[in-house]
Design goal:
This protein is an alpha/beta fold and 187 residues long. The protein has one domain: Rossmann fold, CATH 3.40.50. The strands form two sheets. A seven-stranded mixed sheet has the order 5-4-3-6-7-9-8, with helices on both faces. A two-stranded antiparallel sheet has the order 1-2. α4 runs parallel beside α5. The termini are far apart.
């Protein structure tokens, strides 16, 4: 079976203009160029030397943008084998050394990690109902560093239960999609 591939352009940083390929799969809904530019403008200097986690990597574009904009390291989690293989291919074709790609269930991985992260991307397939479960695990496992940012991309009407220690920092709402960036307030 031949798998159709789509192309996405990295919009900033040292890899600006480089192309990643993604397989045409219903679980992949890459964040648009416009939305990524907004997000990474929000993260601007904060991303530099940050240890990042991409809970539902999909196309990997958020991760590759983070590395391109000088994140220290990115950990990608993906549970679809074909998507995982494409992520490995893109990492290798871009000669990225600071990315670890894990073929795993994100919730299981989160429940078992002791690593701390400065920035976490939560952008699961919209129909999956995984956002609140992911937030609960992240909050309970305390995997956020002293000053952490959490990016959540969802349908506008998705009911999200945000912990009281997470404060809305920035948001952009379109007709269908909500882009929100939270920071964790230290008590």
């Amino acid at each position: 079976m031949k798998i159709k591939k789509n192309k996405i352009v990295i919009t900033g940083g040292y890899l600006k203009g480089r192309i990643i390929k993604t397989i045409n799969h219903p679980l992949i809904k890459p964040t648009t160029n416009f939305s990524r530019q907004i997000l990474f403008n929000w993260l601007n200097k904060i991303i530099i030397n940050a240890n990042c986690l991409d809970c539902f990597a999909g196309s990997g574009i958020l991760s590759f943008e983070a590395i391109s904009r000088k994140a220290y390291h990115i950990t990608l989690l993906e549970n679809n084998f074909f998507i995982f293989r494409q992520l490995l291919y893109n990492r290798n074709s871009l000669s990225i050394k600071l990315a670890s790609i894990n073929y795993t269930n994100a919730l299981t991985w989160l429940n078992n990690t002791n690593k701390l992260f400065d920035i976490i991307f939560i952008d699961p397939p919209f129909k999956s109902n995984l956002i609140n479960r992911t937030i609960d695990i992240i909050n309970k496992r305390n995997i956020l560093s002293s000053f952490s940012l959490i990016y959540i991309e969802s349908k506008v009407l998705t009911n999200i239960n945000i912990p009281s220690t997470w404060i809305l920092y920035k948001q952009k709402l379109t007709k269908h999609i909500a882009y929100r960036l939270y920071y964790r307030a230290i008590k």
